[in-house]
Amino acid sequence: MKDTGRSVTPPRPAEKRPSVSVWHGRERVDDYQWLRADNWQDVMRTPSALPADIRAYLDAENAYTEAVLKETEALQATLFAELKGRIKQDDSSVPTKDGPWAYGTRYLEGAQHPRVVRVPRDGGEEQVLLDANALAEGKAYFRLGAASHSPDHAWLAWSADDKGSEYFTLRLRDLTTGSDLPDAIPETGGMAWANDGKTLFYVWLDENHRPAKVFRHQVGRPASEDVVVYEERDPGFFIGVGRTQSGRYLVIDVHDHETSEVWLIDADAPLEAPRLVAARETAVEYDVDHGDGRFYIRTNADGAEDFKIVTAPEATPDRAHWRDLVAHVPGRLVISHQILARHLVRLERVEGLPRIIVHTLATGTEAPIAFDEEAYSLGLAGGYEFDTDEIRFTYSSMTTPARVYDYDMATGRRTLRKEQEVPSGHDPARYVTRRIQAPAADGETVPVSLLYLKDTPLDGSAPLLLYGYGAYGITIPAAFSTNALSLVDRGFVYAIAHVRGGKDKGFRWYAQGRRAFKTNTFDDFVAAADALIAGRFTSRGRIVAQGGSAGGMLMGAIANRAGDRFGAIVAEVPFVDVLATMLDETLPLTPPEWPEWGNPIADPEAYDRILGYSPYDNVAAQPYPAILALAGLTDPRVTYWEPAKWVARLRATKTDDNLLLLKTNMDAGHGGAAGRFDRLKEVALIQAFALLCVGLAGA
């Protein structure tokens, strides 16, 4: 979409202030490194601390984006109304039973945020435990984090972030009085209760926003008396806390992107020191659940690339005592497992499609829960109770709204508990969903999921939105999206490229899209685009590519490598300054990310490899598609200066006059606006940009 003839003048290119660094004898000059605030840690906590010259640059780019897209304001309003009209405003979750109560969330008509509620197990009056709307009042940003009730149902531990920086403040609420204790605990991560209902364990984040310690807190005692029970000294590892399904143990999970270590605390004896399950071993992953006096461990140990499930005695859970229960089968990726009193349930993926398997512990027999559609999304919903034959799962496809089922493992009976309502209406019969295989240059085939109207012409004339991610082993499901319908109803084909870097086709698919093989991710996305063009689903220049975070890296890479296929690119919080970020070990995610990308500080080959594809470093004097880049000022994951620097270099270097827009949310972080309707305004802006770029802004 060209900017020729517009009355809006692009902002002046950012000032060049060369910064020179030398690594492994290679000199690197960065003209826009000054956009990284030296006081970035302060900015995460206090956005007003942003230096004036950086703020002026971001404000100028925001003003330009607003001015250019002003002509789409009516379209944005229409899209927002459509998007909002597909949301059930007074929606609620299916309550989850726990002892005398069932817990859930509920939205009021017009509310941006949920209420945390409970009802008596067998029916009765609802109790509102926490109203996030009241807590958000007067705040530019508010996001409710965890809300965890104590096992005795007397307390609610809850956390919230009011900057978008993912620094959550933890509070304790007395569920008898509805009042919070005065002692708030800042800069926390996850949390888990011991069985006494008085001892809470939580993760604390250090000054670099890394989960560094697990503390033990006693309800009613000041936080200054909290005790460190675990400290992680390797900045490359994350920490989480949780409970086994049996409620018997608290779990401290320590991991990076390829290595795990688990420590256990007796939930009935929370003052005891944690004990180790198995010492970390590079590239060995495992996670632990517990039941019937044994541990059930999902692991890739012993070469089980796609994972297996082993058991171990409570007294001796180390590697020497692991015994296979569910053997490793190449190509059958075991995604997760849940142990209940009489059953082991696992979620796995075969040939790109998920399935649930119920394993009866007494007999060893297994039964799948079957589904009929060609492509779909499936998830296990966790529960609170252990001694039960009932599990809950969610199901959807690109044409089928989400459904929540309860499944009785003893009888095989499936009960529909909730179906996603689309108040403005949705007729699945109007749409087609398909999955094609795109041939990659190296002989692999890339799955591509498609959604379009039955009457959309497949003669190459249709515009197409192609979404991709491709990192960390994350699989993008072929799930129902009400947001996609606004484009599809206007003639778009909506497509998801299941590129390498995800685990869509097993662990091998992930391994072939990281570190030395990272460029496969980019090549797969281009192969998907080429296959869609060859199949007449669209044509060259009619594709709008979209990706966020690590998927934003994908957007930057394909813009450099194959921009001629695309009419426009939407890069949400894009990880585009890969080399500089991986060289900056003070940033929150840099050490934990080295197993994913390589460590360019220690490894010259990793330096050269990342330099070869890092989108910012490879901006060239060539034409680029229209680009919309979105950033969040307080984003701790992909810092605001990555898209800011990228756009600055593009504006100074590219040879075309196509649109180049940067929009930085000055009140939010990685996820954008937190309110469910405010987020839809951002979606509407993205879709208006896409429609503008393919000439359908009047549709």
UniProtKB/TrEMBL annotation:
Pfam families: Peptidase_S9 (PF00326), Peptidase_S9_N (PF02897)
Residue intervals of the Peptidase S9 prolyl oligopeptidase catalytic domain: 479-695
Domain Peptidase S9A N-terminal: 14-420
Domain of life the protein comes from: Bacteria
Swiss-Prot/TrEMBL keywords: Hydrolase, Protease, Serine protease
Chain intervals for the UniProt region annotation (Disordered): 1-21
Gene Ontology MF: a single term: serine-type endopeptidase activity
GO terms (BP aspect): proteolysis
Signal sequence bounds: none
InterPro entries per UniProt: AB_hydrolase_fold (IPR029058), Pept_S9_AS (IPR002471), Pept_S9A_N (IPR023302), Peptidase_S9_cat (IPR001375), Peptidase_S9A (IPR002470), Serine_Peptidase_S9A (IPR051543)
Family (UniProt): Belongs to the peptidase S9A family.
UniProt protein name: Peptidase S9
Protein species of origin: Prosthecodimorpha hirschii
